[in-house]
Amino acid sequence: MTSKPVKYAYTLHNPRSVPNGTYDGVVDMLPDISSETWEACFDTVEAAVEDARLVWRDNHGYYPTPGEYVAVAPYTPWYPDVGEHWLLDDLCSAAYEAADDAADDWVEELGKVTREDLQELHSGLQAVLREWLKKHDLEPHFGTVDTAKATYCPLWEGAGA
After folding, report:
1. What three-state secondary structure class fits 149?
2. SS3 105
């Protein structure tokens, strides 16, 4: 199985303010990596930082100044997975409901398919599912952010990522 290309996500979400309205220093000014608000699916860290700069500009009316940061972390998009075993189990159940014991031989043959045959079925089902989701604009746009690998990148122009 080939590995999926690494994608990146970022958050500009600042931590909730301390109850008395004060800040405890620089840490309170950094984006909150425990945030559930992440913008995702960038091919590079640099692309994520550049998008964050533009979002900052759009939200604040000016480009970020020194001291503003964005948290960037690896992101794994979620892809639905069709379980070929579920499909075969459903077929067997339907066969028994329709034909009772007369389905025994056919169900037994289904149980003898090879690992390669199952992989072929899985690949075909995945391709059909991806095509169907795309056709109906139902592709998932969420995934998992690896916050343990998050880094803080400066947002101001010329600081680098």
Report:
1. helix
2. helix
Q: Are 12 and 68 in contact (CB under 8 A)?
A: no
Q: What is the dihedral sign for C-alpha 41, 46, 49, 51?
A: negative
> Coil, helix or strand for 116?
helix
Residues contacting residue 130 through CB under 8 Å, at least 6 positions apart: 139
Separation CA 39–CA 61 (nearest Å): 20
The residue type of 105 is D
Strand, coil or helix: what is 82? coil
Torsion from C-alpha of 117, 121, 124, 126, nearest 10 degrees: -130
90: number of Cβ within 10 Å? 10
Name the residue among 77, 64, 86 with its Cα closest to residue 12. Answer: 64
For the full predicted model, state whether its pTM sits above 0.85.
no
Mean pLDDT for each 10-residue chunk of the chain (161 residues)?
A: 70 58 51 82 93 91 87 91 90 95 94 94 94 94 90 80 49
Q: Report DSSP letters for 117-147, one per residue.
A: HHHHHHHHHHHHHHHHHHHTT-----EEE-G
Q: Can you tell me the distance from the alpha carbon of 27 to that of 16, in angstroms, rounded to the nearest whole number?
A: 12
